[in-house]
Amino acid sequence: MILGENKGWADNESVDSEHGNYDYLMFTDIDYKHPDVAAHVRDWLKWFVDTTGVTGLRLDAIKHIDQNFMRELMQHAKTLYGDEFYVFGEYWHGDFDIKDDYLNGTDFIFDLVDVGLHMNFFNAAQSGEAYDLTKIFQGSLAEHIPISTVTFVDNHDTQRGQSLQSTVDDWFKPIAYGIILLREHGLPCVFYGDYYGIEGEFGQESFREVIDKLLYLRGYHAYGEQIDYLDDPNCIGWTRLGNKEYPDGLAAIISNSGEAEKRMHVGILNAGKTFVDYLGHHDAEIEIDDEGWAMFPVRGGSLSVWAVKQIG
User: Fold this and answer.
1) Structure-derived torsion over alpha carbons of residues 157, 179, 257, 273, reported in degrees to the nearest 10
2) 195, 235, 227, 191: which is closest to 213 by C-alpha?
3) How far is Cα 94 from Cα 12, in angstroms, rounded to an integer?
4) Contact 202, 163 (CB under 8 A)
5) What's the whole-model pTM score?
6) Is 60 among the catalytic positions?
């Protein structure tokens, strides 16, 4: 459901938090307070969902649309199709307080994309080792309201050549995908252009190989309690301890400077196992001690994800 498209940096614009009117975006002057207009959009939504069979919606540029109308429209959708009908919206603003106000004003009826986290990724990639990785989640929805958060690395607006261009540099992109795919909170979204590559003047390579590996790790190893080691400006990590169904956990470690290592706990379910870097960025084999601890290394400017070595 696309009702508009934001083509300006929201952080530099004023906003009427109640009504979300940005000077009739793309000449669209729609009075959502008019009962006939509201009824027509509700009818259109039902026709669209019934015709296509979709099980959810992405709401585009919602800061340009009356906030009260968006809340009522999505409550209507939930009434028609149940709470499992998933909805998330693009409210393009990096300030957490504004997004917090919007979520509260719409009764948390749908989730929002985490623009703040994307901008942290962008800034981290631009700054290299000068960026303090302990602040990678600072000011993001993932930090404060993870249950209402859709995380992403890049999208169609942030890719090169677009008016919101803030493309995460290639060296940091696998790191950013490791963060959104292997952590406990947030619903991650993989960008088509990152997975398949982009052709043309503003093209980029495909990251499909590393994303596929991270998706495998998410599907089979990213379970159980998460322990964070966000304690060094140039090297951070976290572990997932596994559970009864998926006992083989993982240990993720990131460096934005030189080679580093970090002692981390992967849980008693992984005691005595041999871990290797599933991404292939490091060739060591790590033995987990009897209490579930080990020292995990990482190459400079890289991500390593350590998981149990597959035998045979």
Assistant:
1) -150
2) 195
3) 10
4) no
5) 0.89
6) yes
What's the rounded Cα separation, in Å, for the pair 117 and 143?
Answer: 9
Structure tokens, 126: 């631009």
Lookup result for tokens 């400017």 = 301
The pLDDT tens digits for 241-257 are: 999 999 999 999 999 99
Angle between helix 173-182 and helix 208-220 axes, rounded to 10 deg = 20
Which residues 6+ apart lie within 8 Å of 14 measured at CB?
A: none
- In the chain the first and final C-alpha atoms are separated, in Å, by 48
Query: Which candidate in 90, 154, 157, 248 is catalytic?
Result: 90
Catalytic residue among 11, 16, 50, 60: 60
CA distance linking residue 305 with residue 222, whole number of Å:
11
Neighbours of 1 (CB within 10 A): 19
CB 235 within 8 A of CB 253: yes
pLDDT at position 151: 98
90 included as an active-site residue: yes
Distance CA 300, CA 260 (A): 7
